[in-house]
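Exam revision sheet. Question 4 asks you to relate a sequence to its structure. Input first:
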Amino acid sequence: MKRKPRYMPPPRERNDYREPPSDYRESPSDYREPSSKGDSKNFFNLAVIGAVLVLGIVLGSILTYNVNFSTESLTTDVEIAKLAPNPELCAQYGASAIVTETRTFVTLNPRRVFVSQPQTQPGCVLRSSNWSVLRQKDAINGEEVSACRNRMNTFGYTGDIDVPETAEVNCLYQNDGQTRF
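Answer key, structure tokens:
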């Protein structure tokens, strides 16, 4: 039993491929000789469009780049350390820090999360071996020390530690988020 041959499309005529006719006088409208003028116009147009694109990106970057030259910006560790509460005590027994406070509101119906504007202020994080400084200043009591030690945490504070009413002391834990970036 013989197989039927596969479908073969009919052959195309010469003009379908836009080839020049053998005799140019035959049909001059079907074929045009490429001109170098058209190629240079296309190149010029592409060059202009490319230049405008690059210029737009550069101008956009310059206009949106916000440089803060104010004296209020914290740019170095030294400036942060100077702004910490009790800077000498903080440098001796811990490390100065930038404390950021935000409030998060979670609604259940509909499920949405809202975050308040963060408030930043200078603070200090004490090494766990130096908690006695906070006990001497009556900023924490023995119960708070044992609760924080059981969770293997440390203490941090904002405000003047010499005035316990103005100081806000919290038990902190170190986040290992730096290894995830």
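Marking note for examiners. Strands lie at 94-101, 104-108, 111-115, 119-126, 154-158, 168-172.
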